[in-house]
Write a structure and sequence with these properties.
By secondary structure, the protein is an alpha/beta fold. 27% of the residues lie in helices and 24% in strands. The chain is built from 11 helices and 19 strands. The chain has helices at residues 14-28, 37-41, 45-52, 65-73, 91-96, 106-115, 138-148, 168-183, 196-199, 326-332, 337-342; strands spanning 8-13, 31-32, 60-62, 80-85, 100-103, 120-125, 133-134, 154-158, 190-192, 209-210, 230-242, 247-248, 254-255, 260-265, 284-287, 290-295, 303-307, 316-320, 350-353. It starts with 7 loop residues before the first strand and ends with a strand.
């Protein structure tokens, strides 16, 4: 078997990624600012950016200066917005790699303006209570307005929705607050607010561009259902027969009620398959077209599944991206698709493919 599939690996369907991006652009009617932070949600930021280049996005979003630097080293030339609020210590790196900072407070704005006239974006906190100037802080907004009147680098204003996938009322409330702030300021060239979920609600929250993330990578964000982009596979590296009463794994966490066959699969929590599952949920994986239960504790490098006698060493197990979707596997582990993707270990080969 090829070296990159001898243990565990990821298959990444770049055509599916592009199809999901086209869906967002079509429904929102707006230009794309794809989020490629956290190494492109675990699948490879440079590879994702290069694939999305064909759709003419405005630029790309990252969470840190180093993530932006990686894109630059990978040949990405479009604008890169660091969506985390600017810390003055980051200014030198932003200037070195031509990154747009996100300004979340007046001190950061003053620090940036002292050192640069390059483009920057300002974040408004409309209810997330995480970053940005509060929408109802009249003193801070007045000072912001005065500063922006003479700031040549002011390029964008944005906010972040907290519940767009499930609660349209909260989203409308945030949007209205954002519009109030926008109307009190000179309008910048770019206004943006919509994440995947908000962008998929149509043009209502689209602004000048939208910031899709999880939907691009195959995670649910309301409707429609995205195409699957990432599949995690691993080889069966051992099988053994067990008797009724035998235990499996650390802590004797699972005990056989009857004779059976256990397959050992070469994937564990160091690869991104979480150690613990949701309370009361049985986690499953797919082997040879059948879903089988994971038994015992997932270990750092391996997990075990209860299978039938047809399973052989070298067979391929699919953890998610096949019969079991990314979101289904995340729910079984008591987490969300974002976390499952960004946990994917660096030792997993990423195989970038095109759909048939």
């Amino acid at each position: 078997m090829p070296a990159d599939t001898s243990r565990a690996w990821l298959d990444v369907d770049l055509d599916a990624l592009l199809a999901n991006a086209r869906t967002v652009a079509s429904i929102s009617g707006s230009r794309l600012l794809p989020m490629v932070k956290a190494n492109g949600y675990g699948i490879g930021a440079v590879a994702v950016a290069r694939a999305l280049e064909s759709l003419d996005p405005w630029g790309f979003g990252v969470a840190s200066v180093e993530e932006g630097a990686e894109l630059r080293r990978g040949g990405v030339q479009r604008p890169i917005l660091v969506v985390s609020p600017l810390v003055p210590d980051w200014i030198e790196g932003c200037l070195a790699y031509d990154l747009r900072p996100s300004i979340g407070d007046l001190l950061a704005l003053e620090a940036w303006s002292r050192q640069s006239q390059r483009p920057f974006h300002v974040e408004i906190d409309t209810g997330m209570s995480r970053a940005g100037l509060r929408w109802d802080d009249t003193a801070a907004l007045s000072a912001l307005r005065a500063h922006l009147s003479s700031a040549p680098g002011w390029e964008g204003l944005f906010t972040h929705f907290l519940f767009a996938e499930s609660d349209v009322d909260i989203t409308i409330r945030q949007w209205d607050r954002f519009q109030m702030v926008l109307q009190s300021l000179p309008r910048p060239r770019l206004v943006h607010a919509a994440n995947s979920a908000a962008a998929l609600r149509g043009r209502a929250f689209a602004g000048d561009m939208v910031r899709p993330g999880i939907f691009l990578y195959g995670g649910l964000a309301g409707h429609p259902v995205p195409r699957s982009v990432v599949s995690l596979h691993a080889r069966v590296i051992g099988t053994r027969s067990i008797a009724a009463g035998d235990t499996v794994g650390y802590g004797a966490g699972w005990q056989a009620e009857q004779p059976g066959v256990i397959a050992t699969i070469a994937v564990g929590y160091a690869d991104g398959f979480p150690r613990a599952g949701a309370s009361g949920r049985v986690r499953e994986i797919e082997i040879n077209g059948k879903t089988v239960p994971v038994v015992g504790r997932v270990t750092m490098d391996m997990c075990m599944a209860l299978v039938d006698s047809s399973v052989r060493i070298g067979d391929v197990a699919t953890i998610f991206g096949g019969a079991i979707s990314l979101d289904q596997q995340a729910a079984a582990a008591g987490t969300i698709s974002y976390e499952l993707l960004t946990r994917l270990g660096s030792r997993l080969p990423r195989r970038y493919q095109r759909s048939a």
